[in-house]
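Thread title: Can someone regenerate the structure for this chain?

I was given the following input by a collaborator and told the matching structure tokens would be attached. They weren't. Posting the sequence so someone can regenerate them.
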Amino acid sequence: MIRRVVLVSLMFSGLSLAPVGNHVVADEQALYGYSAASSRNERQWEEKLRAIPSTDNLRAYMQRLSAHPHHVGSLYDKDNAEWIASKFKEFGLDTHIEQFDVLFPTPKERVVELVEGGPKFVAKLQEPALPQDPTSNQQSEQLPTYNAYSIDGDVTAPLVYVNYGVPEDYEQLERLGVSVKGKIVIARYYHSWRGIKPKVAAEHGAVGCLIYSDPHEDGFVQGETFPAGPYRPLDGVQRGSVEDMPIYPGDPLTPGVGATKDAKRLKVEEASTITKIPVLPISYADAQPLLAALTGRVAPDGWRGGLGITYHVGPGPAKVHLKVKSNWEPLKPLYDVIGKIPGSTFPDEWVIRGNHHDAWVNGAEDPISGQVALLEEARALGELLKSGWKPKRTIIYCAWDGEEPGLLGSTEWAEQHYDELRAHAVAYINSDANGRGYFYVEGSHTLEKFSNDIARDVMDPETKLSAWKRDQLHEIANAKSAEQREEIRKRADLRIPALGSGSDYTAFLQHDGVASLNFGFGGEDGGGIYHSIYDDFYWFTHFSDTDFVYSRALAQAGGTAMLRLADADVLPFDFGDFADTVQTYVKELKALAQKSQDEIRERNREIEEGVFQATNDPKRPLVPPSMEAVPPHLNFAPLENALDTLTRSAAEYRKAFDQANANGGAALASASLAEVNKLLIESERKLTNAEGLPNRPWFKHQLYAPGFYTGYAVKTVPAVREAIEQKRWSQADEAIVVVAHVLQEEAALISSAAQKLSAAK
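Best answer:
Regenerated them for you:
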């Protein structure tokens, strides 16, 4: 997993369902997308499925899969793929391994040392084995601490502390009169994906970048450190990719096409997603002497971390030597495990489920905690097959390789099968790391109602409430206003966040236009071992889902979702929640544009009046900025008109569905509904266009994308939103027209589906 879920967004609502026995019993109202008769049959199969997953099996799977490091190109990575394939076959899935060959550099030389400005210091750049943790001593198999896809480099330069290293931090440095040109920067993790930090540093002229885990977010400030507790210890290091994935994920040498043996490849120096400057991750033990050697301005309040030092910005007198050199050849093999259950009625409609199996080291939490749930789902479906169940639609289970370096396995597969997926894929359901706590869902808002319904039918194993009810109560407790609290109580479905990037849904949703969801449990287990050698079976069984009941709950949720999508009479897409969500996006964009314009006018006024005050040293003025042109008025009318049309078409579809669902939903069993389902499958495709987003055409979805300067976090309506944020006003006006056209096309498709549904008999 490239993005760890730390703060859980909770997103479900509906009727409270009382628990009975070991499962949640829903009322007899027909499932959405099912006639009354098919709903009764479906509920029986789903209850059978949810009774099958075994905590003993989940524990055994994890112990086996996390027994050794299994990064891309390692022997145990291939061994795990072959073992997973053998289990899929044992469970009754038609299974094969699909191989791709990708660029995956591994380090040869790594040096970080303080050469001026303090006592000579050489960073350890190594995590020590611990006697309590039996797999932490597998040094010969472990990848060293490094950032994949850092360019090679050997630089010596003054050091500057840049806080989180995001664009607004550089704006603050400019106001403080501090330049990073020709410097090495040191940034702390959090507040953006790690690859953004060297990217922004290079844009400002830095020659090298260090990223460290500050204990304020990721260490002893949070709680007891490993092995006494779950949090990152003194010498713990977060490995990870710094590939510029907001441009495109996957193999850097084969953008847009599968990395097969005969694929046409770029040269390494032509790959735009490799960093422009060398970068390394370090522990807070290695960071402290470097930060302590800095002088210059005291860092602003919000920049100060948890180390027992005075945080200075620099530069001077600290000078650092940074050296990174990697093995760039040969290409490494990826092993995607693909298991299939053919559909009995609509074999050309595919419901796809995925989780990755590769890890930076042993990876018990990330990703094996999710992978074991996927395995138990596949076993449960196999047991149903033996009992006579046959899915209407084809079900495909995928164990991806190469997710950690840059979503490699899923991206290459989705690129290689682009035309097939555009023609056949109904939806993609993703999971990644799983833990103890609340059920979280992110994804396509056409599936928001569907995800709410799944949460209502899965029990939280600790509270014995439905997973949905527990989430709803938590959201109410954490609401920021009375209005928000009231909406949570009354809205038919709790809102789900949109997807940015960071896991294997990215290529399906944002490149191929396949409706996608990402879900799991978490939020109640401290996560301080992310991408370190301590993410292993010992840590997981002491500090996370120790009895594997939440892994079982994830298998129940995933299996229920797959069954329900595969067997629905009418695919359970809903457009009311979708239209409502798009309405919130348009309101946000208008408010963002107004705020940006107001801020520019106020800033210009302050410049005219000479209002400059340093934030932490009133005796020294800030560097005065230059005035900006007053921004023009943006014409949101095309977007507002498209939204009105979308809202009407969503209401039209819901009316048609309710009519078809009357009298037991006999019309939902009509053979003519095949045409409706084909349109519903196309609904997410309509939200993409062939040209993609400005300056990054790989990302084709016009409503959801990772931010260009966030990396993981989503930017909704990204072409418009980012143009406003970057003050590109003419580009924003153009993007409004493009998105409006996409929404009009979507509305037309929804209306067409409504008309065909109304005609069903």
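Residues 106-327 form a domain with the Glucose Oxidase; domain 1 fold (CATH 3.50.30.30).
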